Amino acid sequence: MAVRLNERAYDHARDMIVAGRYVLDDRDAWSEHQPSTRQENDFIAQHGIGRYATWHLGIDDEQDEGNKGRYKFPYGDFEAVHRCGLLAAESRAGQRRYYDIELAVAHLHGMLEVLRRRA
Q1: What is the DSSP letter of 78?
Q2: Cα–Cα distance, 20 to 37 (Å, whole number)
Q3: Within a 10 A sphere around the Cβ of 61, how many other Cβ atoms?
Q4: Residue (of 63, 55, 42) closest to 89 by Cα position
Q5: Domain spans in the chain, listed from the N-terminal domain onward
Q6: pLDDT tens for residues 63-73?
Q7: Average pLDDT value for residue range 5-18
Q8: Would you say 52 and 76 are in contact if contact means Cβ atoms under 8 Å apart?
Q9: Percent helix, strand and coil across the chain, each rounded to 5?
């Protein structure tokens, strides 16, 4: 599997954080906050696969562009960046040695930690 950083998604996540569209949730909340398959399919039907891709920090180049499976490491619920989603992505990227994704997620996580300390 050739998975690499989705630069467009990274820029989108960073812009969302700067705009205040984030949730400072607990580490273990991702299973509750992650969009369901139905929510993903509804989002794609309304906005297209390109917009869906911006909510995923990894791209698997071995998958077709129109395939949901091409997009890895989700980080939000299609409305806001979730701290728990970033933490899950950071952990999985590190385990799989996708260092470009791990570093990008660590930066986004760091941005949220600064905001969390201010709250």
Answers
A1: S
A2: 26
A3: 10
A4: 55
A5: 3-118
A6: 999 999 999 99
A7: 98
A8: no
A9: 60, 15, 25
Give the pairing type, strands 3-5 and 71-74.
unpaired
Question: Token match 């760091």: residue?
Answer: 110
**21 touches 79 (CB < 8 A):** yes
pLDDT (tens digit per residue) in 37-59 = 999 999 999 999 999 999 999 99
Assigned token pair, 33: 């906050």
Query: Residues 61, 109, 26, 75: is their CA dihedral positive or negative?
Result: negative
Helix/strand/coil (H/E/C) assignment for every residue in 10-65: HHHHHHHHHCCCEECCCHHHHHHHCCCHHHHHHHHHHHCHHHHHCCEEEEECCCCC
Helix-helix angle 83-95:99-118, to 10 degrees: 150
Which token pair is 67?
Answer: 């395939």
**What is the DSSP secondary-structure string of 49-111?**
HHHHHTTEEEEETTS-TT-GGGEEEE-B-SSSEEHHHHHHHHHHHHHTT-HHHHHHHHHHHHH
Cα–Cα distance between 66 and 63 in angstroms, integer?
8
Token pair of 89 as six digits: 């992505």
Measured distance CA(112)–CA(106) in Å, rounded: 10
